[in-house]
User: Fold this.
Amino acid sequence: MSFKKQPKGYSSKAVHAGYSPEDSQSLSVIPPIITSSTFKQTDPGSGKGYIYTRYDNPTRDCLNKVLAALDNAKYGVTFASGLGSITAIFTLLKAGDHVICGDDVYGGTSRFIREIVSNFGMQYDFVDTTDLEAIKKAIKPNTKLCWIETPTNPLMKAMDIEAIGKIVHLQSGILFVVDNSFLTSYFQRPLEYGADIVMYSLTKYVNGHSDLLMGATITNSEDLYKKLKFIQKSTGIIPSAFDCYQVIRGLKTLSIRMDMHMTNGITLAKYLEKHPFVMKVLHPALPSHPQHELILRQCYGYSGVFSIYLRGTLENAKIFLKALKIFMVAESLGGYESLIQLPNKKFKSGFLYWKI
Assistant:
């Protein structure tokens, strides 16, 4: 078996969607960086589409449009960081609402729910979202949001997006959100499987250069789009025009970069899987992964993120990390550099998180 075949046109959309030279008076080939905070109003109380950069900005609009196009969606809203996107989505809820979240998610998401969301009177349950029965049992009359990552961070568990979507949408009013930061729209498009919102940390693979923070929400719902835009306008969680330009630039090479991330990641994972000092490799693109067939059925490919269990103690793992020549020990992922991390607060052994 192999991954789904990528339809033609993705790379062309990444280059051309969202902007054409005719959109600018200068006919510039690339979108101009508009740093103005405010815009002249030809008539009092109205402008030529733009009033104030916290509301809308021409460079940000270009990015919103191309991101939506790459997910075959209608609407995109970008925020100052991935957590800014998470904050905006949770602002759609109110006190008394119940949230279902996967039990293995990005630490920032988990911390936000446990330490921030709980202060506003919302309820939550962390559930193994590979277990469809567990999701069914977790749904309550006041459940308003189901949040998943696939694959997860850092255990690389894969979720059946379509199956989960069908379950949560049996009850009216539950918002189904998928964090797709690890795979990007090049390798996985959750809206096609029933997600209401796709969330991205653009900081990672989409930008691809480890030089900015940004997040995004993508949806086909005009109602959700308008609400998210209002939240952005009212909270000020906006990215700068220059950062938007950088992500637009990064998107031009996204498909090429992701193909190489996948090739290099699989090559290294296969090597490590045979190494005598490695107990286990968690890489969804390898046949040894428990959800391997699901990944092949659901995705167009895979990124360069995977985890391993190294034989020995935590101290052995630290010695190993210090001996590496190319991989750097650092947070985040998705840039052109190769990173590795030891999440030792969660794992008391040689659990290593590789990010190619």
